[in-house]
Amino acid sequence: MGSEPISGKQEIIPAKMASIPPITKGNADWHNWRGTNFEGKSASTGIKTGWSDRLEKLWIVNYLCQDKSTASWSAPVIQGNRLIVPGRDKENDLVFCINADNGELIWTGSYKAESETSHGPGSRATPFINEDRVYTLESNKNNDLQLMKGILICIDNDKQPELMLSL
């Protein structure tokens, strides 16, 4: 694991939503690392710049990492009402799809992934949303070469992982 202890409240993964809402799109969509045009700039306007009256917390999740020895080092992405956030348990990388409107779990995916590196456990690849698909890259330690090899994971935005491609 990395050099710092992991702390904080950890809850069990909740049940998925009974009915899955249709996928929407929004002005603040951020489909990949560094944004829609890969330049680290948002096209959103009217963003609040004064914070003296604080923001209202709408919801919170405490289940992304399922053990004190697990972590996720990648960024979330969003498309409309779909917030895609990586997580981790002891043996698997996890991918959560959370309803951005209310914080309810829409779906979760998991795939076996070794994680013990000198940089600590957990996913480092920010997911990518393309239309109705989510892609993520699993880092898997190659013990012989001490390098990382990747497995590309494709997830239908309403289902479980459906395609795995070794790179």
Any overview of this molecule?
- 0% of the residues lie in helices and 33% in strands.
- The protein is mostly beta strands and 167 residues long.
- The strands form 2 sheets. A 4-stranded antiparallel β-sheet has the order 1-2-3-4, with no helix packed on it. The protein has a 4-stranded antiparallel β-sheet with strand order 5-6-7-8, with no helix packed on it.
- It has a domain at 77-166: Thrombin, subunit H, CATH 2.40.10.480.
- It is globular, with a radius of gyration of 17 Å.
- The chain has strands spanning 77-79, 82-88, 92-99, 105-112, 128-130, 133-142, 147-156, 161-166.
Q: What order do the helices and strands come in, and which of them pair?
A:
Layout: E1 77-79, E2 82-88, E3 92-99, E4 105-112, E5 128-130, E6 133-142, E7 147-156, E8 161-166
Antiparallel strand pairs: 1-2, 2-3, 3-4, 5-6, 6-7, 7-8
CATH-defined fold name of the domain at 77-166? Thrombin, subunit H
- Major sheet: arrangement of strands: 1-2-3-4
User: How far do the termini sit from each other?
Assistant: 25 Å
| Residues in β-strands, percent | 25-35%
Biggest β-sheet strands, sense, barrel: 4 strands, antiparallel
Radius of gyration: 17 Å
- Number of strand elements: 8
CATH uppermost class of the domain at 77-166: Mainly Beta
CATH architecture annotation of the domain at 77-166: Beta Barrel
Residues in helices, as a percent range: under 10%
Q: What is the tally of helical segments?
A: 0
The SSE order reads EEEEEEEE
Coarse shape: globular
Summing up helix and strand content along with how strands pair, one would put the structural category as mainly beta
**What is the mean pLDDT?**
77
